[in-house]
């Protein structure tokens, strides 16, 4: 890993992890059993997510796996959560202008997606074994998974603290809600952004504008989906419709990207393969060789 990138990644990760440890300590100070079960859920959720992505052909074969996975998860759960805290000003702005329905949207959409995108880009630039667009998908997915597990743990602690019945009931209700609505939301959106970053980083003969455009487009997609997901529709039935529509678009987009990545990674597993180069070479041969 490049020393400059190592430092750039390490500092916000350490600060973010310390903040999460404070949240965890608060949970244990309130109820040891509830906090322990929430932590167990977090470990299981993370392990299942890592196992699932490791079964795909997107998993990089020429990288120090443990270090790469740990860096992704720690950025998402540490630095990603730290960057997410910058959304306070946007929340205040929405409140001051009376846009109550969009408070959660502004508080989470732009900053959380930006934090995951930044972390994915830094990690792709730091590990020499990451050289394919689908490595961007896997990296983004793991960064998003780290963020999501930390967020679930935090919401579980808050749910336990505010529940009128018991800490355990509030924590279980919070986890159950997040498992039903929006499961792997952060991993999915960060994976799509990572796929775009992978193409921006690892293709040749593409303009700078094209690379910036594909990354900006992926971030904008994540922002809009996240904004819509968090947006509060006052009429309950319409709010349910909104959630279903957004979920179909989000998971549908990820399914398409996952399918494309699966096909590409199975077809071009050669470590010497450079994305988009085969097409350029074919054109060159066609132009030079007479019919």
From TrEMBL:
One of its GO terms (molecular function) is metallopeptidase activity. One of its GO terms (biological process) is proteolysis. Signal peptide: none annotated. This is PrsW family intramembrane metalloprotease. It comes from the Bacteria. Keywords: Hydrolase, Membrane, Metalloprotease, Protease, Transmembrane, Transmembrane helix. Pfam families: PrsW-protease (PF13367). The chain crosses the membrane at residues 7-28, 34-54, 66-90, 175-201, 208-229, 241-259.
